[in-house]
Write a sequence for this structure.
């Protein structure tokens, strides 16, 4: 029942003796609070949007480059928005410390104003310097906003900027391989803010986005530390992906919104498994045995260690193969990698068999939990595995067609079965 | 609250100090630096934050120099290029590994190095002032001007930037194409 209608109906319910006046008051109080909260939420949303739009507008105005204005005038214009932003943040600190809308709006505005300021100075003096240098200075000058006034959205922007910095830095030089080492301490600076948000607003939408952006950032950032492309890169990705999958299982509380980690981790686990399901991928082991990894051994060990440590940590709340089989993919891939040195076909068969088992288990869990998305994910894993192998094999098109039709019928049948099961449960 | 205010104050100081120190350094170079004209050929890209600019490719960067074997140059090593003026344009006098104490006209930059034989190395320099920012929409026009100013016989463009040099750093003062500054062309 929509809230206003429920509140309107209260006097009638009291009159009819269905509830007491005291109960009516308590119901009224219960539903009055969220309306106030929703007003605050709107204020917060508009503050964030306002800060973002004004700040971005400022950057666009700066990017136009007003050459006709003198150097002094342009310098004043560079500092003015930043000074206003600093004043607003100070006002928030002193007077509106508890109001999220003020904290977010002013911090975002100051963050973008600082970017506009250093961009304009760079423009006025035709300072050379690559985009990554600009992003680095900007990030360093604004990182404190995560703590003073303690803005979550500026944290998201900061993570976005350092990820952009790391990507541009890694791909910036044609001559040499340069790794964005600064990305790591700059990311570590975010950890106390993350813990603060986890404790205070773990179930909020803001925290969901904090997790999503952090997960995307780490997924991209971690891949910028390889020197070369190897088969073992897939093992490193698997280590990290399994750690991502296990994030919600490393603590007891179910109300914390960390869903973005297993979502991204799951995609990566499947991506690596499908990649390794090809026989030819493993032949690199034969071509370059032993010491071909070079310094790439370090990112590999680090990512695998993260995966293994998280797996062990999660054992406190989860038995092996409990609820989902995705995390166990790490063990399977490591076993297959070891066996590939002896026999590549065996490694390939193990990965393909695991994909089918994983798909089947996901279908069964989906049916058991009455979850259509999960059941369809399982079916998709099975179908893609079969389809990939059919493309590999040199068999005639008619047979391929029959198999695809069979897969399609399988999908339809399973979905109809689950829907029927639901209907029967409702009637019962 | 006190620690929050201290952190806030530190942030404010940094936010003012970093751009201010950049302004101070650049203004000093523009005031006291020695001017040099660097022959150049710009092309027109765009930066998401700083807007439109032309990348400056200098003739000087194409010069390939034989390096002293004992200098043991490495790729992207820092170097000091001592400048001289030849026919009104900047030219390389010599490249050194240590900051020159006697000369004032030198630029700190990075070098590209590659081995010709076991005991001979070639180097070229990579100048740091490689961008000239323009008002939105003028990048392409500047590139057109450059093409028009090309001498068909020598295949050389009549374009250069005046750069003020001081203590190893340089700040671009002006971009000149066909004898007119870019501002004069835009009027």
């Amino acid at each position: 029942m929509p809230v206003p209608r429920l509140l309107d109906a209260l006097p009638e319910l009291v009159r009819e003796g269905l509830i007491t006046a005291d109960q009516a008051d308590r119901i009224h109080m219960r539903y009055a609070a969220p309306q106030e909260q929703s007003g605050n939420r709107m204020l917060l949303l508009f503050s964030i949007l306002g800060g973002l739009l004004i700040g971005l507008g400022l950057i666009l105005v700066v990017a136009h480059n007003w050459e006709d204005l003198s150097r002094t005038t342009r310098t004043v214009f560079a500092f003015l928005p930043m000074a206003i932003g600093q004043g607003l943040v100070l006002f928030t600190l002193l007077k509106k410390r508890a109001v999220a809308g003020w904290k977010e709006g002013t911090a975002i505005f100051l963050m973008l104003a600082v970017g506009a300021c250093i961009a304009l100075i760079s423009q006025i003096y035709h300072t050379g310097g690559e985009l990554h240098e600009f992003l680095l200075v900007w990030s360093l000058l604004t990182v404190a906003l995560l703590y003073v006034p303690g803005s979550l959205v500026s944290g998201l922007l900061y993570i976005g900027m350092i990820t952009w910095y790391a990507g541009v830095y890694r791909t910036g030089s044609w001559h040499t391989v340069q790794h964005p080492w600064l990305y790591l301490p700059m990311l570590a600076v975010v950890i106390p803010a993350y813990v603060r948000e986890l404790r205070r607003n773990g179930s909020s939408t803001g925290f969901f986005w904090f997790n999503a952006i952090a997960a995307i950032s780490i997924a991209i950032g971690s891949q910028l530390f390889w020197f070369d492309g190897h088969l073992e890169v897939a093992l490193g990705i698997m280590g990290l992906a399994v750690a991502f999958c296990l994030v919600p299982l490393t603590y007891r509380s179910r109300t914390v919104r960390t869903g973005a980690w297993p979502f991204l981790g799951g995609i990566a686990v499947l991506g690596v498994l499908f990649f390794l399901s090809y026989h030819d991928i493993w032949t690199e082991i034969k071509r370059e045995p032993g010491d071909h990894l070079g310094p790439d051994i370090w990112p590999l060990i680090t990512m695998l260690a993260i995966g293994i440590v998280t797996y062990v940590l999660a054992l406190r709340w989860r038995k092996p193969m409990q609820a989902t089989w995705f995390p166990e993919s790490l063990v399977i891939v490591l076993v297959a990698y070891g066996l590939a040195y002896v026999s590549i076909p065996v490694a390939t068969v193990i990965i393909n068999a695991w994909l089918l088992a994983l798909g089947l288990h996901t279908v069964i869990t989906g049916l058991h939990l009455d979850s259509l998305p999960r059941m369809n994910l399982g079916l998709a894993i099975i179908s893609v595995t079969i389809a990939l192998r059919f493309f590999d094999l040199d068999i005639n098109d008619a047979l391929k067609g029959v198999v695809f039709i069979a897969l399609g019928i399988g999908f339809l049948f399973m979905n109809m079965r689950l829907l029927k099961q639901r209907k029967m449960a409702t009637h019962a | 609250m006190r620690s929050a205010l201290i952190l806030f104050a530190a942030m404010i100081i940094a936010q003012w100090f970093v751009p201010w120190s950049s302004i101070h350094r650049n203004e000093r170079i523009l005031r006291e630096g020695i001017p040099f004209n660097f022959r150049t050929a710009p092309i027109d890209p765009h930066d998401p934050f700083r807007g439109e600019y032309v990348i400056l490719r200098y003739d000087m960067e194409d010069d390939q120099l034989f390096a002293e074997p004992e200098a043991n140059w490495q790729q992207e090593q820092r170097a000091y290029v001592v400048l001289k003026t030849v026919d009104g344009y900047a030219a390389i006098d010599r490249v050194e590994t240590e900051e020159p104490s006697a000369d004032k006209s030198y630029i700190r930059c990075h070098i590209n190095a590659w081995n010709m034989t076991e005991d001979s190395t070639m180097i070229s320099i990579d100048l740091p002032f490689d961008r000239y920012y323009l008002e939105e929409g003028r990048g392409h026009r500047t590139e057109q001007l450059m093409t028009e100013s090309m001498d068909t016989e020598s295949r050389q463009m009549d374009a250069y930037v005046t750069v003020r040099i001081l203590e190893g750093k340089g700040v671009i003062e002006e971009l000149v194409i066909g004898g007119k500054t870019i501002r004069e062309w835009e009027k």
User: Anything to note?
Assistant: The two ends of chain A are 24 Å apart (CA to CA). Residues 21-64 of chain A form the longest helix (44 residues). The CA atoms of residues 229 and 318 of chain A lie 34 Å apart. Chain A has a mean pLDDT of 86.
